[in-house]
Specification:
Two copies of one chain form a homodimer. Chain A starts with a helix and ends with a helix. In chain A, α1 runs antiparallel to α2 and α6 runs parallel beside α7. In chain A, strands 3-4-5-6-7-8-9 form a seven-stranded mixed sheet, sandwiched between helices. A five-stranded mixed sheet of chain A has the order 11-10-12-14-13, with helices on both faces. Chain A is of the alpha+beta class. In chain A, 33% of the residues lie in helices and 28% in strands. Chain A is globular and about 50 Å long. The first copy, chain A, folds into two domains: 137 residues, 2-Layer Sandwich (Fructose-1,6-Bisphosphatase, Chain A, domain 1); 104 residues, D-Maltodextrin-Binding Protein, domain 2 (3-Layer(aba) Sandwich). The first copy, chain A, contains eight helices and 14 strands. Chains A and B meet through α3, α4 and β11 of A and α3, α4 and β11 of B. Chains A, B: It holds the Pfam family Inositol_P. Chains A, B: InterPro entries: Inositol_monophosphatase-like (IPR000760). Chains A, B: It comes from Streptococcus caprae.
């Protein structure tokens, strides 16, 4: 597994370089489900690059990826979960605040996760057999703090609608932030910069953080308190397990 | 004025170094108007540092500053507007996403503004006689784009309440972000990363961006479309003048 982890780190950095080299060139933007659900030609090219690198070295492995037509199931034997550009809208409009995410699962068990903030060259990595790190420096496990000394990070619409009590929880904290990238947001949670992230997202948006985070005391649940299904788009939260009961006082 | 502008840049960098040197030491946090309106001992010390540097060199000048008991009026002859730490909550919880802001006015006319993102060492500067720059590189004047290719940055509560139509405008764009620092947010607008910033803020929160922004085609108005008063806390927006009529279709 150590080789595979090193390989993952190598190709995610390569994907980052690829994005940087093309970031200011014209990209084709297409809409997916609605006008504000976007994908660029670079999302697809970056995914193709990662998939081809993986299948070159591990031809038997399977892929669960954002821009795929057909996808493996998370319970398959050896599955790479890929989000080539998480925060595509930020990528298009801001040229910052986006990440590449990669994680690896065997029969539903996460082995390692990688979140790469390309513009800031920050790589979050970890898994059950690898200490969670940011650019090689160990991340600290969660240390409990009262809600009123923290922030939450939320999808703007879910905060506005008080979906499942998100705004009720936010009102107990110092406020809510919205960054537009699941990976970036969950990295901030794992860095102690916010107590919770919530949004309505797909497996490739939370898989890497779920794997890295569990070694630091964090977990992903749906807002109803269930395990995420690693298949459909769901309203999820990423938070420290130690605060589960107080968080579920507000979010249920 | 060139000397004063250079002096302003020198002391804002000094303030940044001062904050960095004390950032991870214990700070005293006090609440102001309510539990989530915070000030730290470092806000006050940083303001004291800036005020003492200014009055050493320009003993006749006046001060309009966040942590002051008494303040000059913006229409006074020579006024420095100071926000020692804008984004105090981010500073406390995240140790990032905060800025120092400094601007200089004569009889209500802005002469230069400075916004310093301390952690990322990014200094936005400019004024009517100084080309707007980021770390010495010229910033581009606003280039028109359709709303549906942009983002807005909003205070989370104002978006949630659809205050003055903020959410109606957001619905025409690719979405809303919330960063928790006025200066950081307005810097993003001036960098073309969002079309509008809106929040409920004080003069020291918008003065610097107003002065830098006007040379790039941006302005500050209240959400009712009036000039801000540079005295009280008001709901304001910072946006490109060229898009005023389309923005005011939604925000009024």
């Amino acid at each position: 597994m150590e080789n595979k982890f090193a390989f993952g780190k190598k190709i995610i950095k390569e994907a980052g370089k690829f994005i940087l080299s093309r970031m200011f060139a014209p990209v084709t933007v297409e809409t997916k489900s609605r006008f504000d659900d976007l994908v660029t030609s670079l999302d697809k090219e970056t995914q193709d690059l990662l998939v081809s690198r993986i299948l070159d070295v591990y031809p038997e492995d399977k892929i669960l990826a954002e821009e795929s037509q057909t996808n493996a199931s998370i319970t398959d034997d050896r599955v790479w979960v890929i989000d080539p550009i998480d925060g595509t809208t930020n990528f298009i409009v801001q040229k910052s605040d986006f990440v590449v995410m990669l994680s690896y699962f065997e029969k539903g068990v996460g082995k390692f996760g990688l979140i790469y903030d390309v513009v800031n060259d920050q790589l979050f990595s970890g898994g059950p057999d690898f200490r969670a790190q940011l650019n090689g420096n160990p991340l600290e496990t969660y240390e409990s703090r009262p809600l009123n000394e923290t922030l939450i990070i939320s999808n703007a619409g879910m905060f506005a609608r008080n979906s499942h009590g998100v705004a009720d929880l936010a009102a107990q904290t110092l406020g809510s932030r919205t960054y537009g990238s699941a990976g970036l947001s969950m990295s901030r949670v794992m860095s102690g910069k916010a107590i919770l992230y919530t949004s309505c997202v797909y497996p490739w948006d939370y898989a890497a953080a779920a794997v890295i985070g569990q070694t630091l005391g964090y977990e992903v649940l749906t807002l109803s308190g269930e395990q995420p299904d690693y298949q459909t788009r769901q309203e999820i939260m990423f938070f420290p397990t130690e605060e589960k009961s107080i968080i579920q006082t507000y979010i249920h």
